[in-house]
Amino acid sequence: MSSQSMAEPDAAVTRKLAISACLSLMVMLVDYGWLLRDELKIIWPKLWSSRYAKVYVFSRYLGTASQIFNVFFSLRMLAGVSAAPSTCKMWYNYQAIVVQVLLATVEGTLMHRIYALFLGNKWILSFLILFGIGQIASMAVSARVALPSIRYTETCLVVATHPGSIYFG
Question: Where are the transmembrane segments (predicted)?
Answer without folding.
Answer: 17-36, 57-79, 91-111, 123-147
